[in-house]
Backbone:
DNA sequence: GCCAGGATCGTCT
DNA sequence: GACGATCCTGGCG
């Protein structure tokens, strides 16, 4: 992929462990709002912390489907969390989008968030800022209202560091969290 | 500034 | 009937 290209489904049609770190630096846009992805986490079917670990159910259906779609679910009965489905159909895996650096539509984000800062520095926060709800579960990330672009100049070379995932109780030791080194928008404990 | 606790609801046992 | 891939508020020092 080259700078500014739209990410097609083929980008996601491979190991989630390749996709997750490469998503850092990409631009995610929804409607008029957009942000650069600065933090992700990988989940695959062999992983006890993955929703698909226990097998296919009505909720995690989308995880088993074709790559390049959005998997949105409700966390703690309060927050919608956004994932990008990876790996071929039948193989359940996804990348959790944990944090963005806002680059467009800041006013709209502030409006939706009801605050001036901390707009997208957390998985539940960015979905609220961008207006992502459960109704987008299963929709393609390469078609409206979504748009996903390869890193612009200057972002392609950002250093990505790996560390332990956050907010889970199973398989905590797996270093499957990726974030842009030193980025101030990364959520919670920095690496 | 830090930490503990509560909100809130769909999904699975 | 319990449990989260979380966030925010309030209380205390």
Residues:
């Amino acid at each position: 992929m080259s700078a500014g290209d739209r990410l097609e489904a083929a980008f996601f049609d491979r190991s989630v462990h390749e996709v997750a770190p490469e998503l850092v630096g990409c631009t995610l846009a929804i409607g008029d709002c957009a942000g650069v992805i600065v933090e992700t986490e990988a989940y695959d079917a062999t992983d006890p912390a993955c929703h698909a670990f226990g097998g296919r159910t009505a909720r995690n259906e989308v995880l088993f489907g074709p790559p390049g779609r959005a998997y949105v679910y409700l966390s703690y009965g309060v927050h919608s969390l956004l994932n990008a489905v990876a790996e071929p159909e039948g193989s359940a895996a996804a990348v959790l989008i944990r944090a963005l650096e806002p680059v467009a539509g800041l006013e709209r984000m502030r409006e939706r968030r009801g605050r001036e800062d901390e707009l997208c520095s957390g998985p539940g926060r960015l979905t609220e800022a961008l207006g992502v709800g459960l109704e987008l579960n299963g929709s393609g990330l390469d078609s409206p209202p979504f748009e996903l672009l390869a890193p612009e100049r200057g972002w392609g070379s950002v250093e990505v560091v790996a560390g332990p995932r956050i907010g889970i109780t199973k398989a905590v030791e797996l270093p499957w969290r990726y974030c842009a080194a030193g980025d101030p928008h990364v959520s919670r404990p920095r690496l």
Summary: The mean pLDDT of chain A is 92. The two ends of chain A are 27 Å apart (CA to CA).
